[in-house]
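Re: the request from the purification team.
They wanted to know what the chain is likely to look like in 3D before they choose a buffer screen. I agreed to run a prediction and write the result into the notebook, where they can find it.
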Amino acid sequence: MEENTPLFTNDAIVFGLLMTVLALIFATSASKNRIWQKFYSVVPVVLLCYFIPALLNSFGLISGEDSGLYKVASRYLLPASLVLFTISIDIKGILKLGPKALTMFLAGTLGIMLGGPLALLTVGTIQPELLGGSGPEEVWRGLATIAGSWIGGGANQTAMLEVFGASPALFSQMIAVDVLVANLWLAFLLYWAAKPEKIDRFFKADSSAIYELRDKIADFRAGIMRIPSLSDTMIILGLGFGITGVSHLIADFLAPFIGENYPALSQYSLDSAFFWIVVIATTAGLCLSFTRARNLEGAGASRMGTVLLYVLVATIGMQMDLGAVFDNPILFLIGIVWMFFHILIMLVVAYLIKAPFFYVAVGSQANVGGAASAPIIASAFDPSLASVGVLLAVLGYAAGTYGAYLCGLMMQAVSMG
């Protein structure tokens, strides 16, 4: 059967359509209208940013397969967004949050890294064919993209998609698993955020330090926030895309060199140019966070990174096959078991170190939800604590590339037996 030609084939038109969709989503999500407020209290913004372009693709208005927008977004916008997210990391500020906050964040990262292969192994005993497959259809390749999302965010998820090469159909199913399972856990955390005292009493935790932390973070953000000038915006974009160019330059030399001289390393994707682009961009952003460039966060560095990220999200969505979501429900079981291991490890660590539930909730969402939902959880405890979620979530963007890559390798090892 011949494929139907999409209604819009010009990428300029498709790009304009995607940007219009994003604008409408964010305009309505910021509306004071009660209907929209109720709607977005149930439906996450990022879900619409994935699925509306997917609907446009599914109904033949556009074609992700024929468009070149995704390649441009993943090669240019993704590395730049990683730079702009990591450039704002205040390592000293995060350390001042106290060892328990950082410990719970790292426990959440470890829970996801170990939970993935454990969940695949557990469910694989019920359905052994999950451990088989070949090429882009291997389940572990798709699960690696969830690891990227749950440790870091959408940028890291796309990085894992490119590095491990899951098929578009498999990735569509993984997005559904990612969004559904993550939002079920988010709903649970929001419920308990309103009454953390019971859990704190069980953990025998002292939460008084949280209020001291609130004041420190508020002072920090107040000290760097400013109205961005044109120079600020140009510097932010120059750093983001300049480092992206350098990343491409190094990767174009390094990846072929490894492929030709060390072919055994190809199983770890070290001959992938895209892998090195992402790693170099992330590392450069981390290095810049120790310089005055970190103050560009006050002029909106991470906000600009978020803009680039959502354009990327829309181009991912336009490749999705919505019908594939229902093809493999066993994947949802893997996601639920995976989240169970993440929660179990976090609660055990919290009990052992007597960490307040605030650190559990924010540490988990800094991993699973990233900068989109970690501030929401933090502000559910106290509005002035939202920036704590931002700081830890930005750390998640930095850790996401490395942690998800290692998780993907462990799931590969499980699948290969």
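For the purification team: The longest helix spans residues 230-261.
Please add any questions underneath this entry.
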